[in-house]
């Protein structure tokens, strides 16, 4: 084994060693050693906060270290799943209602949020009413989804604050990708609630519409909460660490894949261009890039294909 291979192996083992799988009860001396309190622990000179801080940290960071930690992990997993399910299903047409506008003339115009009304027109003895959607973007999810997300995000915020308060390194904690995702997800939810409550009745103004679109775009980060499950499922954690340990090899594979994609895109473009076929689909190299990606990944949509013999030979080689 060369020195480089030995060094890479040691780095991989170090990464795997850092992944605490929590297969057994945590040892107090190791726990206090992490916080630099081993001397105080051995001399029995710990303050109340110094005693509680490592144990609270273990409850929230080591899912299998105790019964309390398992309960916290179970609540977190349930909240992650419920929040993502609510986030996805609230966009389904079956669970949304439009914001409707009642108009009876130039001097009477009311906008309301309806969950049971349908588009229709009706009349009374003195007025004729027309119901129509006031804004194509103004659809209202079922209130149950808001309550589910609210409860889940209250738990997420509580969990995040506790973990930040008991961490041994706040800066390292805040730089963690999972924690950055959590910060963005919590901010996106409360921003959406603020925008919805603040501009709920102002559909005609462009500023609220832009704000709602921006908040909805930011809310996509909530789906990335699925990565939090890697903290609780050992198999996912090992998979992530495997990708991390093999990052150089994967980047090298992606690099060569990109090189061949560009190469075959250029070759098929000129092969079809010189064939003078009237049904040429490859009008530029960027279009050839799409064909090369679809072909090399063996997806094969069939939306475009070479017509010349040279292009077909290239397609066979590309596959």
From TrEMBL:
What transmembrane ranges does the database entry give?
Answer: 67-89, 144-166, 178-197, 250-271, 283-302
User: Which GO terms fall under molecular function for this chain's record?
Assistant: delayed rectifier potassium channel activity
For the keyword Zinc-finger, the answer is no
Annotated GO CC locations: axon terminus; dendrite membrane; neuronal cell body membrane; postsynaptic membrane; presynaptic membrane; voltage-gated potassium channel complex
Residues forming the Ion transport domain are 70-312
| InterPro entries tied to this protein | Ion_trans_dom (IPR005821), VG_K_chnl (IPR028325), Volt_channel_dom_sf (IPR027359)
Instruction: Tell me where it resides.
Output: Membrane
Q: Which domain of life is it from?
A: Eukaryota
Where does it primarily localize? Answer: membrane
Q: Which UniProt keywords apply?
A: Ion channel, Ion transport, Membrane, Potassium, Potassium channel, Potassium transport, Transmembrane, Transmembrane helix, Transport, Voltage-gated channel
Q: Does the keyword Signal apply?
A: no
| A Pfam cross-reference name | Ion_trans
UniProt membrane topology term: Multi-pass membrane protein
Annotated GO biological processes are: action potential
Q: Which PANTHER family match?
A: POTASSIUM VOLTAGE-GATED CHANNEL PROTEIN SHAW, VOLTAGE-GATED POTASSIUM CHANNEL
Q: What is this protein called in UniProt?
A: Potassium voltage-gated channel protein Shaw
According to its UniProt entry, this protein's organism is: Echinococcus granulosus (Hydatid tapeworm)
